[in-house]
């Protein structure tokens, strides 16, 4: 007995020392990549140029709609370097100058930059100003003799600039003062010193300027009028001929300006094609001698045979895309043509003056999920047999980028993921026999060896090779990328909707694409030219039937931006990515309200509000209707009209009185309205609590054993308004004229529960609302710093429930239902702190039960995610907290929030172009999953209060086992010894 | 006990108010950001024009303010609707507008006179009570040029209002002369589920509160602390000295156990020796119990 009591403490200590090995908040270097992944994208490619120089042959330079310029490896599609220009610095054109500089024109033609091709360093930047806003055109003359020509010609802001390629110095410029002149093409015929600027003035005048390329001297200015006007698009067919269409789209005009003389040649389309079927448009291209027009049904290729004579070479009703022109040798130019035919695409490379002969003809099987080919860029290479080979870079409708060579897809990039609109998380299938991918540990020896290695690592006995072995073992642990649900809920699917209208399911373990689906409703079609995906909602999340029913998501897509455009609902299975069903609605959709009710198949009820203020219930089943009727009078919602500063509250009234309406349509009525005076308030931010947030306890015990009750209402709305003047650019307003008002509005009754004015503050406001607190970020003009404020709201009507006896005897009102029509008795506490960074997004961690303390996730301007403990944003912080307050965990008051370098969730990585942060609770209470998206994607797991409820991955079970074995052995040995001793004593 | 007293006092004041109001009625309101105007308590049978009631009262205060700033009197009406019916006039707010020297205008001394329900309105209201529907009110969003940009609407379930009479509570959020929002409801709680209860008296007791925006607390600035912090930042902060016990308890406990163990061993030894010597003279009889004691 004495012996046992002697060892027990040791056993206890052994365990203690293990549990104290919990990980610190930041990562160790060797933990990078264990739980997090990072993916880099560039967005939909707008323009691609290939380097022709020897060293740059393996590279392609692209500019994208996400304002990225990047250099990609042509062999594998990897990024060599990339730069993200700001959203107000849109790229207009890129080109390569002198074979080693990438030239970009951006910001509406006012910024010209040069980047070093090998490493992406910026060489120079010059700012080009002009008298008026205009289309911007970039022309880098591609002379084969490089050393002679080093001038970049830029037409922007109504002025023609010639810029030196070496240092960005503006050599000369020439204004085009004429009010209505609109330049369409800047042409420099190869080998000449003349520059032609052609364009339209007014609506019916064609103008041509001939300029000396050496000094910008205007040599000739010709104009000609064509009475019926032009469509604003031209196709360049030779260096001195353009083709345009008249304003009706039925007559082709061949305009030649040879030797400065303008001559028109009219050809009605009907004379070329028998059945033109409607007006045509020109497909902009610059293939010498050939141009393409498109009518409703056909794409027609027309050849120009001298003196303005036209000849149709091909008429096709397939979707066709033409590439840029590639000079392959002196006087020979090639271009590529891509046509769709069923599930294949046909690629043809032709020489400009020889339509019928093909340099290359290939067909490639193409995934239907990628949609149409949007853009084609052609590049050549020298084959092993010294002949010309061609490869093309194609941009698909789903924004993916593919390289085709020798009839195969060499590589593809899913760049649609650079523009994520909405994200939702879905569970993985439950592990079942047969489905299971689980591998039983290979064998006991391997397992033991692994743990011995870990043990060595823990005891710091490991050699560098061992460390490497441990690292690789951790990384490839197949556990985290299995396709089944795990016990801790770390493995999930992230269902992502991109701007292109494609749905992706990403595995949280390693970020791979599990499935992708291009929604039929989001394909461009005859009925809808510009469909847009709006939102993603969880439609069905089976818990009771998790074994035999798959969860599904609801995708809402609309044809065009107007709110009464036709809407399509699509339901997609999240396990397989199959579209289960799709509904074309007869009404528009302004607002979608997921209701907190589900039917027996666990489909969530959704209320769709159309522009006529009718509410429509989905799913349209009688069961859903029955559930809905039961809760009819308890459904309230609000709408924000931020253009005129009105917030309105609504409730349901009755069935639609409309004759045509079905039984799932309901009339609504306005219950309340808040009107912000237009001269003093402009709504810039509205934030509510997350629907699925869980709050663990309503009571908060504060220092002196007192209890405060959090005011927890799902119907609270945070609104921030600023002075109308203060919503302009920074610097446009003085602190006296600028203020920011924060409101807390109850969305059922329209009560303003709290209203506070920050004088001298301005937007942009980023806010996050959780439990009973709101944190918002804004700029303080007086202090010249960013600030973060916190408002906490507490319920006073429950404040009397402090007496234990009352609770014991049940004389409390804690379990009585709350009606928001009662007069609220709330108090608020608030405090402001300075914060160093400007912010792109704010989110808060969310855990399964809401017990774990919260962290704010701040997306900083440097595209990183910073985890900031909520305790720093406690309004009860004071300069000298009492002992009791210190025990409670209140941090002494400081004027600014600390930024601890270790608390960057993204550690050394950057999520370029960060737009949103999403948190998803894992099943394990201590852990939350964080997904940050922008141009890049980043995912990690966070444990705001450390993983207090589980052993960490690197926990050495072998050491524990060894200790136990040793202890048991010791117990036996000493027991034997004591037995013997006792026996000896007895025999004495 | 105290609460009962307070409640009694409140009830008393509510009842006595109309009678008091004929004698002396001070509606002196604090020109602070939160103003509390208690007005429009149950009215006499015939609706009395507000002007007569408020006329004699404000003279004293008015003089004081008019020296500094000009103020003028305005009226704006409260409309109500039963369920989804159209709005009809229900009462009048009267207030003074103070024009400050810096150009701002504020509303002060808000008073409210409620029209009594007509019999038809009573019937409508009863219907509302029966169907648990909304009673809606509206105010202009600008009191100088009603209705301003839009009307401010607020609603409450009709069943929340009846108590003894009909109790209502207005919180009007103002921004200069603009009404931002009005919070309308019962002055106390409205329990759920709402039970049908008809008022004993068909007259309103109204409470009105004007609210302007609060100032946010400034972010604290500690310049001195920061300097101090910088000076002290170079040194490594020493962790507070812990007591000997706090530091070494994990070693002390096993040590203690070992010692106690050793002591008990040592205690047993002499005991054994002592008992061992006795039987040498006294014989076998003693041995049994002593060994039993040891085995325990």
TrEMBL record, chain A:
Residues 770-987 form the ER membrane protein complex subunit 1 C-terminal domain. InterPro entries: Beta-prop_EMC1_1st (IPR058545), EMC1 (IPR026895), EMC1_C (IPR011678), Quinoprotein_ADH-like_sf (IPR011047), WD40/YVTN_repeat-like_dom_sf (IPR015943). The chain crosses the membrane at residues 955-978. Residues 1-26 form the signal peptide. It is found in: Endoplasmic reticulum membrane. It comes from the Eukaryota. It is a single-pass type I membrane protein. Residues 27-415 form the EMC1 first beta-propeller domain. The keyword Endoplasmic reticulum applies. The keyword Chloroplast does not apply. Keywords: Endoplasmic reticulum, Glycoprotein, Membrane, Signal, Transmembrane, Transmembrane helix. PANTHER family: ER MEMBRANE PROTEIN COMPLEX SUBUNIT 1. Belongs to the EMC1 family. Component of the ER membrane protein complex (EMC). This is ER membrane protein complex subunit 1. It comes from Hibiscus sabdariffa. The lineage of its organism: Eukaryota, Viridiplantae, Streptophyta, Embryophyta, Tracheophyta.
UniProtKB/TrEMBL annotation, chain B:
Residues 40-68, 274-296 are annotated as: Disordered. It comes from the Eukaryota. The keyword Transmembrane helix applies. Pfam families: ECM10 (PF21203). Keywords: Endoplasmic reticulum, Membrane, Signal, Transmembrane, Transmembrane helix. Belongs to the EMC10 family. Residues 49-60 have a biased composition (Polar residues). This is ER membrane protein complex subunit 10. The keyword Methyltransferase does not apply. It is found in: Endoplasmic reticulum membrane. CDD domains: EMC10. It comes from Hibiscus sabdariffa. It is a single-pass type I membrane protein.
């Amino acid at each position: 007995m004495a012996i046992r009591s002697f060892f027990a403490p040791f056993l206890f200590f052994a365990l203690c020392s293990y549990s104290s090995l919990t990980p610190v908040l930041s990562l160790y270097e060797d933990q990078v990549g264990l739980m997090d992944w990072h993916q880099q994208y560039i967005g939909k490619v707008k323009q691609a140029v290939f380097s022709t120089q020897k060293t740059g042959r393996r590279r392609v330079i692209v500019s994208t709609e996400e304002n990225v310029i990047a250099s990609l490896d042509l062999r594998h599609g990897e990024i060599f370097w990339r730069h993200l220009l700001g959203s107000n610095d849109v790229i207009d054109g890129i080109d390569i100058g002198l074979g080693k500089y990438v030239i970009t024109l951006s910001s509406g033609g006012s910024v010209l930059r040069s980047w070093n091709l090998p490493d992406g360093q910026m060489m120079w930047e010059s700012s080009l100003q002009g008298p008026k806003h205009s289309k911007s055109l970039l022309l880098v003359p591609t002379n084969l003799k490089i050393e002679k020509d080093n001038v970049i010609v830029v037409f922007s802001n109504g002025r023609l600039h010639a810029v030196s390629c070496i240092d960005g110095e503006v050599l000369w410029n020439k204004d085009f003062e004429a009010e209505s002149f609109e330049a369409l093409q800047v042409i420099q015929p190869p080998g000449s010193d003349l520059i032609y600027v052609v364009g339209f003035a007014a609506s019916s005048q064609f103008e041509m300027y001939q300029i000396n390329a050496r000094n910008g001297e205007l040599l000739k200015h010709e104009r000609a009028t064509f009475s019926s006007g032009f469509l604003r698009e031209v196709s360049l067919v030779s260096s001195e001929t353009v083709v345009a269409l008249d304003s009706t789209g039925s007559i082709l005009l061949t305009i030649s300006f040879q030797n400065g003389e303008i001559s028109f040649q009219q050809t009605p389309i009907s004379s070329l094609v028998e059945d033109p079927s409607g007006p045509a448009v020109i497909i902009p291209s610059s293939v010498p001698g050939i141009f393409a027009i498109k009518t409703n049904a056909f794409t027609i290729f027309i050849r120009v045979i001298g003196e303005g004579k036209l000849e149709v070479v091909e008429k096709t009703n397939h979707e066709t895309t033409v590439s840029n022109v590639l000079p392959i040798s002196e006087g020979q130019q090639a271009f590529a043509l891509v046509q769709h035919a069923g599930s294949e695409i046909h690629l043809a490379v032709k020489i400009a003056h020889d339509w019928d002969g093909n340099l290359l003809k290939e067909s490639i099987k193409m995934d239907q999920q990628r949609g149409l080919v949007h853009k084609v860029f052609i590049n050549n290479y020298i084959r092993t047999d010294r002949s010309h080979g061609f490869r093309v870079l194609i941009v698909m409708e789903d924004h993916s980028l593919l390289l085709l060579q020798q009839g195969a897809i060499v590589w593809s990039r899913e760049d649609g993921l650079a523009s994520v609109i909405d994200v939702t998380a879905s569970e993985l299938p439950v592990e079942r026999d047969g489905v299971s991918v689980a591998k039983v540990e290979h064998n006991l020896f391997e397992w033991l060896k692994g743990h011995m290695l870990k043990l060595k690592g823990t005891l710091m006995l490991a050699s560098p090779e061992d460390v490497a072995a441990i690292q690789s073992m951790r990384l490839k642990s197949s556990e985290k990328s299995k396709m089944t649900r795990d016990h801790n809920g770390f493995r999930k699917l992230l269902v992502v909707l991109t701007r292109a209208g494609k749905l992706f399911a990403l595995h949280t373990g390693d970020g791979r694409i599990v499935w992708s689906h291009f929604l039929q409703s989001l394909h461009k079609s005859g009925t809808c030219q510009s469909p847009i995906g709006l939102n993603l909602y969880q439609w069905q999340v089976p818990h009771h039937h998790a074994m035999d029913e798959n969860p599904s998501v609801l995708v809402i897509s609309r044809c065009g931006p107007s709110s009464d455009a036709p809407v399509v609902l699509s339901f997609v299975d999240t396990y397989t990515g199959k579209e289960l069903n799709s509904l074309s609605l007869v009404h528009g959709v302004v607002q979608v309200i997921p209701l907190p009710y589900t039917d027996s198949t666990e489909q969530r009820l959704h209320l769709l509000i159309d522009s006529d203020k009718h509410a429509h219930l989905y799913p349209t089943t009688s069961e859903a209707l029955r559930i809905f009727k039961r809760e009819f009078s308890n459904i309230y919602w609000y709408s924000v009209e931020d253009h005129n500063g009105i917030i309105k509250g609504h409730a349901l009234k009755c069935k639609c009185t409309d004759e045509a309406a079905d039984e799932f349509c309901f009339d609504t009525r306005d219950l309340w309205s808040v009107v912000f005076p237009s001269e003093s308030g402009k709504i810039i931010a509205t934030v509510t609590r997350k629907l699925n947030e869980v709050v663990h306890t309503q009571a908060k015990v504060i220092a002196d054993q007192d209890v405060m009750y959090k005011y927890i209402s799902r119907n609270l709305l945070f609104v921030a308004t600023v002075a109308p003047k203060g919503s302009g650019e920074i610097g446009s307003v003085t602190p006296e004229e600028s203020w920011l008002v924060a409101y807390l509005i109850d969305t059922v009754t329209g009560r303003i529960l709290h209203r506070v004015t920050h004088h001298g503050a301005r937007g942009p406001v980023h806010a996050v609302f959780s439990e009973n607190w709101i944190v918002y970020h804004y700029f303080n003009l007086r202090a010249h710093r960013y600030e973060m404020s916190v408002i906490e709201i507490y319920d006073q009507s429950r404040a009397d429930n402090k007496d234990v006896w009352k609770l014991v005897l049940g004389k409390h009102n804690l379990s009585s239902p709350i009606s928001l029509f009662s007069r609220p008795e709330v108090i608020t506490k608030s405090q402001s702190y300075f914060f160093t960074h400007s912010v792109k997004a704010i989110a808060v961690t969310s855990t399964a039960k809401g017990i774990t303390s919260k962290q704010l996730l701040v997306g900083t301007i440097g595209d990183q995610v910073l985890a900031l403990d909520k305790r720093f944003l406690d309004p009860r912080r004071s300069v000298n907290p009492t002992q009791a307050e210190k025990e409670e965990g209140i941090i002494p008051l400081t004027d600014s929030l600390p930024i601890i370098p270790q608390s960057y969730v993204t550690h050394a990585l950057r999520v370029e172009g960060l737009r949103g942060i999403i948190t998803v609770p894992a099943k394990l209470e201590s852990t939350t999953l964080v997904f940050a998206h922008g141009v890049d994607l980043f995912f990690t797991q966070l444990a705001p209060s450390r993983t207090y409820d589980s052993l960490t991955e690197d926990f050495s079970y072998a050491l524990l086992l060894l200790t136990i074995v040793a202890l048991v052995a010791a117990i036996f040995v000493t027991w034997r010894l004591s037995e013997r001793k006792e026996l000896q004593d007895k025999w004495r | 006990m105290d609460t009962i007293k307070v409640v009694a006092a409140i009830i008393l004041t509510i009842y006595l108010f109309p009678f008091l109001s004929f004698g002396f009625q001070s509606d002196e309101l604090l020109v602070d950001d939160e103003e509390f105007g208690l007005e429009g308590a149950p009215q006499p049978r015939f609706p009395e024009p507000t002007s007569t009631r408020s006329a004699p009262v404000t003279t004293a205060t008015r003089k004081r303010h008019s020296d500094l700033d000009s103020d003028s009197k305005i009226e704006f009406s409260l409309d109500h609707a039963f369920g989804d019916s159209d709005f009809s006039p229900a009462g009048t707010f009267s207030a003074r507008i103070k024009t400050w020297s810096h150009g701002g205008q504020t509303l002060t001394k808000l008073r409210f006179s409620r029209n009594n329900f007509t019999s038809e309105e009573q019937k409508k209201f009863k219907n509302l009570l029966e169907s648990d529907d909304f009673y809606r009110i509206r105010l202009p969003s600008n009191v100088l040029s009603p209705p301003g940009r839009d009307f401010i609407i607020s609603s409450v379930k009709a069943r929340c209002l009846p108590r003894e009479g009909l109790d209502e509570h207005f919180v009007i959020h103002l921004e200069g002369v603009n009404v931002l929002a009005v919070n309308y409801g019962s002055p106390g709680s409205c329990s759920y589920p709402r039970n049908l209860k008809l008022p004993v008296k068909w007259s309103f007791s109204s409470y009105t509160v004007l609210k302007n925006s609060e100032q946010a607390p400034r972010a604290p600035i500690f310049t001195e602390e920061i300097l101090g912090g910088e000076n002290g930042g170079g040194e490594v902060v020493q962790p507070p000295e812990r007591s000997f016990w706090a530091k070494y308890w994990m070693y002390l406990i096993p040590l203690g156990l070992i010692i106690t163990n050793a002591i008990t061993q040592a205690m047993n030894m002499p005991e054994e020796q002592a008992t061992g010597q006795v039987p040498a003279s006294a014989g076998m009889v003693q041995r049994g119990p002593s060994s039993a004691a040891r085995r325990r």
